[in-house]
């Protein structure tokens, strides 16, 4: 038997590989594709071991070894009935003869990475994963956790491991236990400016300044400003605007009250403010963090 675990979702791929290994009674063999040669294929596909009649062989990224990958199709029909080869391929070239042959003759499982459009899927996964761990989490908390951590399953799984030891998962527990991702911190910063809270801006900038890149922060703030403007000019619902911008509706909905308050001109002014700061950051010798803080304080002043 041959199985292909394809795709860049390393969490799902690793879990599938683990399930296969758990179901196997012996010790699995592991190879990196780059360390193999065509001369190794007979022993992999037809060889036996001294200690067991059954074999489970994991081969990672064999497709990067062009010579062996190209020779693979002629060996698929010679695979021993007692051997299970699992190919782990994050980015297989689907145009190759080998991939097309595997689609016909192997068990192919594809694991696509999650993006921002998959937040609802991530929230549902969090609920199911918590249940799997013997813990319950309601929809509100699952939504908050994804908003705070993002859609990366490794990070979500790590966050859940910190939470499932408690009797009950609450919003307060999530906020006190799980560090917010940078996007969430930037939204809090942007929201403080929209609320005219200068003191909160200065405090948040000082914290971010210790670990973050000011150029990245400016880019994220510019994105927030653009979303704000989009809400003010589009004659659409927040959900429709979110779909057009490929962002999560829940995240965008938090900007709706500020968009209504500022109006079209206010939205355009916010974008212009951060565009000007971004240009200054790239063309002047002024401390970039000073430019970030100055732009936020200007926005705060216009929001009062």
Order of helices and strands: EHEHEHHEHEHHHHHHHHHHH
| Unreliable sequence segments | none
Q: Average pLDDT, to the nearest integer?
A: 90
Overall spatial form: elongated
The CATH class of the largest domain turns out to be Mainly Alpha
Structural class: alpha/beta
Please give the number of β-strands: 5
Largest beta sheet: what is the strand line-up? 2-3-4-1-5
Main beta sheet: 5 strands, parallel
Rg is: 26 Å
Helix content: 55-70%
- What is the name of the CATH topology of the largest domain? Zinc Finger, Delta Prime, domain 3
The CATH level-2 architecture of the largest domain is identified as Up-down Bundle
**Proportion in β-strands:** 5-15%
Please tell me the total number of domains: 3
By DSSP (H or I, 4+ residues per run), the number of helices equals 16
Task: Determine the N-to-C terminus distance.
Answer: 67 Å
Structure keywords:
five-stranded parallel β-sheet, single chain, 304 residues, Helicase, Ruva Protein, domain 3, alpha/beta, 3 domains, Zinc Finger, Delta Prime, domain 3, 61% helix, 9% strand, 5 strands
